[in-house]
Amino acid sequence: MAPSTLEPALETRRSIAAGWAGDEAVFPANRGKLVRLAILGILAEFYLESPTIGTFLIWLNGGAVPGIRAFLTLAVMVILARYVCAWLLGALFARPHLTATVDGIVLLTLFGRRKLAWTSLSPFELRSFVLPTGRQVFRATARILEADATGSWFARKTITLGDAFARPLPGLVDALNSRRSRLLQAAGFHAQAAEQPQEENLGLASFGEPVLSYAILLVLLGIFFLELRFAVDSGPILLPSYATLMAMGALAPLRVVYDGEWYRLLTAPLLHGTPDHIINNCVALLWGGRVLERLVGRLWYLAILLLGALGGSLASLALQSPYGFSVGASGALMAVFAAILVIGFRVPRRSALRHSLHVLALWMMVPAILPYFLGRTGDHIDYAAHLGGALTGAAMGLVLLDLWPQGERIPRRAGVAAGICAVGMILVIASVVIAVIHYQTYDITLIPVEGPGG
Predict the structure, then answer these.
(1) 84-102: string of b/e by CB count within 10 Å (b at 16+)?
(2) 309 and 331 in contact (C-beta within 8 Å)?
(3) What share of the chain is helix, strand, coil (3-state, %, to 5)?
(4) Is residue 454, in this structure, part of any structural domain at all?
(5) Could you report the per-residue pLDDT of 126-184, keeping only the tens digit for each?
(6) Active site residue: 97, 272, 277, 386, which one?
(7) Residue 277: inside a domain, yes or no?
(8) 330 noted as active-site residue
């Protein structure tokens, strides 16, 4: 381009930039937020560290090889430690730090400096997804259209901004895209329209709190209290004995098949063997329940829980040792996460929501199911029930996808879901009544040889 043609464009850009002298062009890091994230990460590390590190120390001293869950937990600890270090260093050195200039952006991170011209960037796309805790997280991404000033085009084809700036990321993205558009237009370029992800509106529009999940959690906690209050024999504090669990309706294949005690298929998911057993299941219920209850509505959510509980019990009956017994809501919970995994495929491929749904589901399902295929059967965990619940939930997810037209927020056929819930609740209540009647006359000497799982 000849100098005479270039100078007017440059002069125009300078005049526009001068007119924006009062606008915010520097976006510093939010140090307080980074410190809070680091503290939460450190607390999570301490929570995971004690049992995991102890397991590996026992292994190194000649003990048993840790299970798949221990290895996965160790991997999580390593990944989390990386983020904790990044958050601490980011708070110390005020990184990331973004500057928007007339020519482009300059991004300072812990790993160096990136300088990109407006002409080498597409508009920033703002994406958001909701964590299982209900917190909304934002992330912005722009494609690199040509080699940037740092020469890193071949290494990275995109640039990503996290929600770690003092200015909220939605406002920051609006400011950057507006500045880019005006400067490119002034310089004679045609600014590309912002490419916002076309995500469908999914889930209940007026969803507030997962009320049904809270109610189920209170029921499980109340039943565990009854296990302790009405134990058939004395034992360690907060640990229901095998005899108590059997008397209250634990799933025992021999009793179901030969004595016709079918009610155990539905009472066993309501019982738990230890405090950490029920705490883990309640945490999983809150994580998965908050997501699925909103995605498919409360009727279909309850239907999946009920069918998952039954599917888990049937799989345990078919695949576990006939001399063992099991308790726990894990089968129903695996159905919830498997349904989330399948329903996630309804969300657009590039959506951050789809990614978060799949990560949540696999995070819970892999350590709960994989040990079954590795032959892990001696650690008092009913992996067969996990597998049965997951298969049931996946099947329900496929059914819901078929009943979920494009443009609808939740699946149709609420009447079918209500029918499943009505029949399921009648059977559960009848099973509980039968268990209560048998409780007074149950022969506590007839307990299996193997311990509980779930």
Answers:
(1) bebbbebbeeebbbbebeb
(2) yes
(3) 60, 10, 35
(4) no
(5) 887 666 556 677 888 888 876 444 443 334 567 888 888 888 888 888 888 888 888 77
(6) 386
(7) yes
(8) yes
Known catalytic residue: 386? yes
Catalytic residue, chosen from 330, 351, 356, 431, is 330
Residue 11, domain member (yes or no): no
Residue 9 lies in a domain: no
The number of folded domains in the chain is 3
Tokens 């221990």 sit on residue: 70
Number of other CB atoms surrounding residue 211 within 10 Å: 11
pLDDT band at residue 198, thresholds of 50, 70 and 90? very low
**What pLDDT digit, counting tens, does each position of 370-428 carry?**
766 665 554 567 888 899 999 999 999 999 988 888 778 888 888 899 999 999 999 99
CA distance 67 to 46: 20
| Helix ranges (DSSP H) in 139-263 | 169-186, 211-229, 242-248, 253-259
Q: Cβ atoms within 10 A of the Cβ of 111, count?
A: 8
Q: What b/e sequence results for 229-258 when a residue is b if at least 16 CB atoms lie within 10 Å of its CB, and e otherwise?
A: eebbeeeeeeebbbbbbbbbbbbbbebbee
Q: How many CB atoms lie within 10 A of CB 292?
A: 28
- 30/107 same-domain check: no
- The domain in which residue 266 lies consists of 211-439
pTM of the model: 0.59
Nearest one of 297, 283, 245, 298 to 267, comparing CA atoms? 245
Return the structure tokens found at 399. Answer: 């059914």
